[in-house]
Design a protein that fits this description.
Helix content is 45%, strand content 21%. The protein is an alpha+beta fold.
Length: 960
């Protein structure tokens, strides 16, 4: 059917100006006289030389006016409609002759002709002559207004017919009555027939030119696009515009299966997805693909090759389907469905669609070639990106060089890489490239669940935005000022986990294509693997470094038994491994149970935390568990008083207990990690390190205790030697001074007259006084060294008795804290009370003159089996220079007659040492006495006296 229709068109059958129609009109004209026939042929010859329709219409009207003598003529033609209406609609296409208002003339003539003459002429298809329209009963009513204005009287109307098809009307008028006497209607009809053929030919030619121009424009529109998806969409859009159809599809042959797949389908401007595939030969599209021939089916329901299963909520009425062929090979089909209007598809539509399909095929092939070339280019670029990413394991280099290469591949102006912070889940800007303003610097943190990048990280899907400035999902307001207009973001995956987000940006309006998104997504996967490898490399390298450092520190720790050196090694080691602003070690004081800041790298403060231990470090020591607090202000356990005391701003804390087996001896605390928050990896490292530290600290403490015990033993032995020497020396001195004292007494008794001399009397009196004082001093010196009876005594009772013998000023507050059930110590009660009196007297002297003051007395049992007496005042304190001489004999700070001999503290130490104990003094000078414990500046003096406890009756190890 199609093939025969094409043959007819090729042979000119039915086409304007073709031999068949011209022969028929020539046959009609052959009956004319020879002179008229010659004239007619001359006119026809001239008409055939005019190709432009306006010129042809003017030529025809001029010849008719010339032949008939009419003054004005109109040529009305049927306006062809797209829907193919059978009833002609006339429009004035040309006016010639006497000049009139053209617009008005056309309007009036059309109105008159349509309602009067045209009816007769069009119905009968014959010429009509009106001698006097004013007196013609048929037209009088319609012609009244026109004839009064234009003076029309005579009218000649001749139909224009081509192949028995009425295409228009020639309308000639004259103001005179009977202006066309005896018109040669036969000649005019013959002329009109030839004119109609010429007009039809010109109109067809013009229509073909317009169609070709339109087809050329559409073809250029299609081949201008190189993206295959965009090409297919453009093809359907232009096909619908070309043929005025409801829907259409492009089906391409799947080279692997040979099936036809619906690549693009559009219905009323909307994309429709059709998953159905057709085998070659199945349905109309399959038949066209199999035979390589077009097919027009005016009624789809009567078309045996129609495959209705493809329909999805759509009724197909008519089909026009053409093959897409290149080099004799069918690559697919293009089909249009349901032409709008009552007529349906025509052969002309088939010709146009076939011609358009040729251009569409070229466009598809170009797009495929471009896609292949682009894929090859992208593959090369991806290989280059892969080479860059795999060329190093340094994360910074991976991000910077990889990002630049990725943007080069998709030809994006700028881009960024954000990495997921494992600890907080936030995204951190890790690298940027090509930014104009750097509005969001590297290191900026994007809050969780906010921003475009967070959406991509959460969903694992690519995201595109074409209006960054007004996109409400943008989390960082400064980024809107960067000037980026369009952006594509893709996830960076490794092992199914999103490690970050890779983005490409455009500072101009741009729509990223599906191909660009796919390429960037592929690069995102490469980035994910590279980042994962780089992180793993960093972890391995860090672990190796940490292991080496741990071994080094472990060796250093085990090589030293000096507590201060061990503490310093621990602090330097842990800060080097993790990198913090400050580190602290708190140890449990076995005597008091306090948690004491023993070492503070970055500060020299000494802090004691009594039980129950407060603060985060107290929680660590109490629970024996590590802790990470990256925002201390939100943790209720945080103790801001420590920051106040140390004048340090703590933001984050990582802490771990110091354990020896299961016994907690303290805690280690790291403050403010440099470059980010503390992580679980940091915690694991600190836990491993703390084990070494606990062992080293325990060993150092044991060594310190051994050293102190050795010193005490040496001190006891030294005291014993000194005792022997002192007793021997004082014995001799006592004898000598006693002789002098006796001699002085004898002189006073035997020489009274001589002593009347005042000089001699004063000297004898002075000798008596000095010898008495000297004997008293000797007695006091001998007391600590004399062997006296010792017995178990209650230290608390002795201290309380010593306090009762002291005069305490009214403004002094005495605070007594005696631990109950203390074991006794071996001492002489009177001498121990006297020892306490020396210390209490000094403390009360320090508070002398103060309106208020505090004297704190404590007695407690220590884990090292010593009973400790602590006497603390908040007086003015003692300077370091004075402290250096306090335990020297005869050293005193008291002036005048009230001043002592300077033996009190020396005797105290001597006596306590004879008992196997220790005396320590710690003093901080201040401005004024009277500041209570924990108030104001830390000033005052503390004396600690430790005596060995009697072990009988002691239940367990108190304090452990």
């Amino acid at each position: 059917m199609v093939e025969s229709n094409q043959s007819q068109r090729e042979n000119g059958v039915g086409s304007p100006g073709a031999g068949g129609e011209a022969a028929r009109e020539a046959a009609r004209s052959s009956a004319l006289p020879q002179d008229q026939l010659r004239a007619l042929y001359q006119i026809i010859e001239r008409m055939n030389s005019v190709y432009e329709l306006p010129d042809l219409l003017a030529f025809i009207l001029d010849r008719v006016l010339e032949y008939t003598g009419g003054l004005r003529g109109y040529l009305l033609l049927d306006r062809e409609t797209a829907d193919g209406e059978n009833n002609p609609r006339l429009a004035v296409e040309a006016v010639r002759g006497q000049e009139v208002d053209q617009i008005r003339a056309e309007s009036d003539a059309l109105r008159f002709v349509s309602g009067t003459v045209a009816c007769d002429v069009l119905q009968k298809g014959e010429p009509r002559v009106i001698e006097d329209i004013q007196h013609d009963e048929r037209y009088r009513e319609a012609a009244g207004a026109l004839t009064s204005e234009f003076k029309w009287r005579s009218i000649l109307a001749i139909p224009l017919k081509a192949a028995d098809r009425l295409i228009g009307l020639m309308y000639i008028e004259h103001p005179g009555r009977n202006a066309f006497p005896n018109p040669d209607l036969e000649f005019l009809s013959a002329f009109a027939g030839q004119a109609a053929v010429a007009i039809d030919r010109a109109r067809q030619s013009q229509r073909r030119i317009e169609e070709l121009e339109r087809l050329s424009q559409i073809s250029r529109s299609v081949v201008r696009v190189l993206d295959l998806d965009q090409v297919l969409i453009r093809i359907l859009h232009e096909a619908a515009r070309l043929l005025n159809v409801e829907t259409g599809s492009v089906l391409l042959v799947d080279e692997e299966t040979g099936e036809l797949a619906f690549r693009v389908s559009v219905q009323d401007g909307r994309s429709v997805e059709i998953r159905q595939r057709l085998a070659v030969g199945q349905g109309v599209a399959g038949w066209v693909a199999q035979h390589g021939e077009p097919l027009l089916a005016p009624d789809a329901r009567r078309e045996p090759r129609w495959y209705g299963e493809v329909e999805q909520g759509f009724e197909t009425r008519s089909i026009l389907c053409v093959p897409l062929k290149t080099n004799g090979r069918v690559i697919g089909v293009l089909q249009a469905l349901n032409k709008k209007g009552p007529v349906g598809f025509t052969d002309r539509d088939l010709s146009l669609f076939s011609a358009f399909a040729a251009s569409a095929t070229v466009a598809i092939e170009n797009a495929r070639l471009f896609t292949e070339a682009r894929q090859a280019r992208e593959l090369r670029a991806l290989n280059e990106v892969a080479a860059v990413l795999s060329g190093t394991l340094e994360l910074d280099i991976v991000l910077e060089t990889g990002l630049a290469k990725a943007l080069e591949v998709i030809q994006a102006e700028a881009g960024a890489v954000s990495l997921v912070d494992e600890a907080s889940g936030e995204l951190v800007m890790a690298a940027t490239h090509g930014w104009r303003r750097d509005s969001v610097p590297v290191g900026t943190r994007i809050p969780v669940d906010q921003g475009l990048s967070s959406i991509v990280a959460a969903t694992g899907e690519a995201l595109v935005t074409s209006d960054v400035k007004h996109d409400p999902r943008v989390a960082i307001e400064a980024f809107r000022d960067e000037g980026v207009q369009a952006m594509v973001l893709v996830p960076m995956r490794a092992g199914g986990e999103v490690l970050g987000v890779l983005s490409g940006m455009s500072y101009e309006p741009y729509t990223f294509t599906a191909g660009e998104i796919d390429v960037l997504s592929t690069i995102g996967g490469m980035f994910g693997a590279a980042v994962g490898n780089a992180r793993l490399y960093d972890e391995v390298r860090a672990n190796l470094k940490q292991l080496a450092y741990l071994n080094e520190v472990g060796g250093a720790l085990t090589a030293s038994l000096d507590l201060e050196q061990v503490l310093q090694i621990i602090m330097e080691g842990v800060t080097s491994l993790i990198g913090v602003e400050r580190a602290s070690i708190f140890l449990i004081d076995e005597a008091s149970g306090d948690l004491v800041l023993e070492y503070n790298l970055g500060g020299g403060d000494r802090i004691r935390l009594p039980r129950p231990w407060p603060g985060i470090v107290g929680w660590i020591a109490a629970h024996g568990e590590p802790i990470i607090v990256n925002d201390v202000r939100r943790d209720p356990r945080f103790l801001p008083d420590i920051d106040t005391a140390t004048q340090f701003d703590t933001r984050a804390i990582l802490g771990a207990p110091l354990k020896l087996d299961e016994r907690i001896i303290g805690a280690i605390e790291l403050l403010n990690k440099e470059g980010g928050p503390f992580t679980e990896a940091d915690c694991d490292l600190l836990l491993g390190f703390s084990k070494w530290a606990a062992i080293a600290l325990h060993n150092a403490r044991l060594y310190q205790e051994l050293d102190e015990a050795t010193e005490r033993l040496a001190s006891v032995e030294a005291v014993a030697v000194m005792s022997d020497m002192a007793l021997n020396l004082t014995h001799r001195l006592n004898n000598r001074i006693s002789v002098a004292r006796v001699d002085a007494a004898r002189i006073q008794a035997k020489c009274p007259d001589e002593l009347k001399n005042s000089y001699l009397s004063d000297k004898i009196e002075r000798i008596h006084r000095v010898t008495t004082e000297s004997l008293n001093i000797i007695r006091r010196i001998r007391e600590p060294f004399e062997v006296a009876d010792v017995e178990p005594v209650d230290v608390s009772d002795c201290l309380a008795e010593a306090l009762r013998t002291c005069q305490v000023a009214p403004g002094i507050q005495v605070i007594e804290a005696y631990e109950p059930d203390l074991p006794p110590v071996m001492a002489t009660r009177e001498k121990l009370i006297e020892t306490f009196n020396h210390v209490l007297g000094n403390a009360l002297d320090a508070l002398e003159g103060a309106e208020t003051g505090h004297l704190r007395l404590q007695v407690r049992y220590r884990p090292d089996r010593l009973v400790e007496v602590v006497i603390t005042d908040d007086g003015t304190g003692i300077s370091p220079a004075v402290q250096a001489h306090l335990f020297e004999p005869f050293f005193t700070t008291k002036k005048g007659d009230s001043g002592g001999l300077g033996l009190g503290l020396w005797l105290t130490r001597m006596y306590v040492s004879r008992l196997g104990g220790q005396v320590e003094l710690d003093s901080t000078p201040g401005q004024e006495p009277g500041q209570g414990p924990g108030q104001g500046p830390k000033q005052g003096t503390t004396v600690r006296i430790r005596l060995p406890a009697v072990q009988e009756g002691v239940k367990g190890d108190k304090g452990t």
